[in-house]
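Q: Given only this backbone (336 positions), what sequence would you predict?
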């Protein structure tokens, strides 16, 4: 059966009756009555029924807002062997170029940093004085930053990390940060060079960092092979024992690595430049030591080289958190 539109015309007009839906999908009686009253009064209905629009989905939690600041981590390893030549180790300072460690880039907008534990050479006091690390505390200060960006103390002293010392031996002490995190009061715009200063109680006196690299001369015709320390350095850099000590006990022997040794005797060159290092086992005088595994009988002439004293090494890793005005990996500045 076919129905004509006229069958559905209303008695009040020639327009087919529109079916108006409420929000629940049923006819909206109230809206239908409004339309009928308007038509009876002779006015054109301009009233439009609009269906409620579905709300858009909430923004993704991973979509950064406009001008949102994110955070980015930079991990750097500060090894005393790579320190700047202007470092004042006698006064407890190590200086580094950030560009040489950070792909030729400075650190910018630094808001926080984190320090890992590390070892520091033990300094031996005379027997008439307390041990050098009597307080079992050391302080690290980054001298590039002002006192307002550090932990302040009396008499103008300030620091960034308080270090608890344990595992003390005749060679080194273990430095553990009391709080490994430090948050700056305001972002540090740019860091090109950074200097670390180490001090000890009770008056924040500078901690002495023993030399880790010395110039020595291999003495031709000696067996065991002997080395003379140059440039007024002494064997006190090697051991806490007062020279001359003679043969060192196994536990007191000193690890050393040589470089730049270039004699005309290839066999001796290989022996001295052993990549695994050698052990100093005899301190002959304040300027001379020997290594029993080396024989310089066939060494043609005295030969100059460099010795690296492993026990005097200072090295540690740090994390610098920087603020960025672009999409990052959504870290928070207070993350662990």
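A: Predicted residues:
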């Amino acid at each position: 059966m076919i129905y004509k539109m006229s069958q559905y015309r209303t008695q009040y007009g020639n327009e087919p009756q529109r079916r108006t839906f409420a929000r629940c999908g049923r006819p909206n009686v109230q809206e239908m009555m409004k339309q009928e009253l308007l038509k009876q009064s002779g006015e054109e209905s301009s009233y439009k029924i609009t269906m409620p629009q579905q709300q858009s989905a909430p923004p993704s939690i991973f979509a950064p807002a406009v001008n949102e600041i994110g955070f980015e981590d930079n991990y750097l390893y500060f090894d005393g062997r790579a320190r700047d030549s202007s470092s004042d180790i006698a006064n407890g300072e190590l200086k580094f170029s950030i560009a040489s460690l950070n792909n030729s880039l400075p650190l910018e907008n630094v808001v926080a940093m984190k320090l890992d534990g590390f070892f520091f050479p033990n300094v031996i006091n005379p027997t008439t004085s307390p041990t050098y690390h009597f307080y079992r505390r050391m302080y690290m200060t980054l001298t590039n930053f002002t006192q307002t960006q550090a932990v302040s103390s009396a008499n103008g002293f300030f620091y960034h990390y308080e270090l608890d010392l344990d595992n003390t031996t005749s060679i080194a002490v273990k430095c553990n940060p009391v709080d490994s995190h430090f948050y700056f009061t305001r972002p540090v715009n740019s860091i090109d060079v950074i200097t670390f200063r180490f001090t000890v109680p009770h008056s924040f006196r500078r901690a002495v960092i023993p030399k880790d690299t010395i110039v020595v001369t291999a003495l031709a015709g000696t067996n065991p092979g002997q080395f003379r320390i140059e440039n007024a350095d002494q064997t006190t850099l090697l051991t806490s024992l007062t020279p001359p000590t003679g043969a060192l006990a196994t536990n007191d022997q000193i690890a050393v690595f040589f470089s730049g040794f270039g004699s005309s005797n290839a066999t001796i060159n290989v022996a001295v430049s052993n990549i695994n290092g050698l052990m100093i086992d005899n301190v002959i005088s304040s300027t001379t030591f020997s290594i029993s595994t080396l024989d310089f009988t066939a060494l043609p002439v005295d030969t100059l080289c460099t010795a690296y004293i492993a026990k005097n090494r200072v090295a540690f890793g740090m994390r610098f958190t920087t603020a960025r005005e672009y999409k990052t990996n959504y870290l928070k500045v207070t993350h662990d």
